[in-house]
Amino acid sequence: MEEVDNILIHALRQVGTDIGEDTGSIREFTSELIVEAAVRCIRVIDPGLGGTLPTSLPPGMSARFRVGMSLAQACQDVGYKGEIGYQTFLYSNEPEIRSLLMFLVEKLPREPAETSDQPTGKSVVLQRAVAAAVRAQLAVPWLPPHCRLPTHGDTQVHRFHSQPLSLPHGAKGSEQRLRDVKDYQRDLLPPVTAQPSHRASVVASILEQHTAELSAAQEWDSEWKSQGLLSRLTPQEYRCRKVTRLRKRIEEQLRSASGPTSESAFGAPSSTPDLCELLQAFRSSAPSDDILNKGTHFTHTQKFSFTPEAAPPSSTPVTLQSEGDVQLRQQDELKGLQQQVQQLSSQIEQLEADMKNMSVTSTQVLDELKQRQLGNSEREERMQVKKKTIDLLPDADNNLLQLQAVVEASTKRVVSLASQWEKHRAPLIDEHRRLREICSTQELESTRKLSEIKSLHNKIRVSTEEAKSKEEIYKQLVTELESLPQDASRSAYTQRILEIVTNIKKQKEEITKILSDTKELQKEINSLTGKLDRTFAVTDELVFKDAKKDESVRKSYKYLAALHENCNHLIQTIEDTGTILREIRDLEEQIETEHGNKTVANLERILDDYKAIRQENSALAAKVREG
């Protein structure tokens, strides 16, 4: 138990118990030290429960009993299942105290030294502060220099403004194109930090680019797992088919947006010309050339400022216009231009409405034309049939005979073709059935493989999550290991545990050897006892036969019976002696146990405590009488 006591004493010192250096066993613990150790452990396990318990015994006996009862109740509250009471602390028993302290030390959290309220020295406090600071810095995620806030000076807050970035990606194509792309990326493409217009937009642009690429990759992964696998195509084929569908859809949208462009029934062009052409025609047919040729305020200013004026007649003096007159004239021109723009917009809206009406009428005309063309084609077919019939009427008999001959020949040909088809049909049907079976088996196989792929994806996802959780647990355990006190040598504890295991193995071997020896002795004793009984029975029978005839043999028979009885008494005496020795040994062990339990000392202490309680009671009674 020496190793166990050393481990317990070291753990109790870690939680703040004041244990002397000369104390090396639980047997040397006093009642005050036991109470302090238990209270320290309970305060670390449950601070709310142990905060009300004192770490030392009061001088009064009644108060000591109350402290012992409250401490026993606290131990039961934290989960101790053994027998415990005030006597466990006041009248200590070594096995009970050892089991209680072992339970409390096992219930301690991983870092009892940090939760203890007792300082253990300036160096230890400094080490704990440094470890806490390093742990806090390791817990903070790493940030690039552009994302870190300045530690000194005013903190500048920038708006999250992202700009498109050009990143070097792998290109496809001919060798010349690849070489050109590499030359551009190496010589002309600026670095990522220099592409945004403002330095504050670098981080936002990079995050936006990364988020877009990550979301695109996730969308492609989910789409491929949900739809791509079911299409039974490779990723490249699936992308090509998707691009083709997208191009077709864009073309259809453009066709539907452009409107009908076919020619009318009479060869005239469509009644829905392009809007740009209509606007150009409207501009060319405008009554005044100044309607759409009006410039801006800047152009007017330039005209007024830099346009050379015609030379006035010599009789009229040149007058300079003031700036106010120029502004008034420009405002009048601006109002006129706004009115003209409004008129043009109304005319454009009216033209658009006319275009819509004309497109509707053109579609109606085209539909009507198609219907009439269908009706004309049917009438032409009927007319051709009637014409051929009329041509055949003059020579009807010969034509009927020829028609019958043609029908018979066609019938014979149909019969021969049917027989030939039957010959070809049977192997084709068999081949079709065989191919259908192969296709069905391939579909089943592909379905099975698809389900296996999905199950593998699920297993991969579950394994990834388990790996992440185990990695987090590993990191947590590593941090806990680093935070544990390093003053206790793990190798020393391991060596002690191995020595204890070796001693236990040796004791088990010795016990097994003793048990085997005892069994062999018992077998030998049983065999000798049986042999003795058989020998006595045979001897008794032989001597008894001769005792009937001879008087001396009769005396020998009596001596033989007396010898057998004395041997039985002797054997019984030896067995009783062994039983008594075993009882003596058990009693000695009980006496040693009682000596270890300090029964006599505890009884003396109980008597002293009883006398002290009687004195306290008499003193209290005297005070009550005086009062």
Describe this structure in words.
The chain has 18 helices and no strands. Mean pLDDT is 78; it is low at 112-120, 261-273 and 278-320. Helix 1 crosses helix 6 and helix 2 (31-45) runs parallel beside helix 6 (94-107). The protein starts with a helix and ends with a helix. It has helices spanning 2-14, 31-45, 47-50, 61-77, 86-90, 94-107, 112-115, 122-139, 175-188, 201-228, 235-258, 275-284, 297-306, 323-392, 396-483, 490-547, 551-596, 599-626. It is 74% helix and 0% strand. The chain is mainly α and 627 residues long. Among the domains are: 2-139; 175-258, no CATH class; 275-305 and 323-392; 490-596, no CATH class.
Layout of SSEs?
Elements: H1 2-14, H2 31-45, H3 47-50, H4 61-77, H5 86-90, H6 94-107, H7 112-115, H8 122-139, H9 175-188, H10 201-228, H11 235-258, H12 275-284, H13 297-306, H14 323-392, H15 396-483, H16 490-547, H17 551-596, H18 599-626
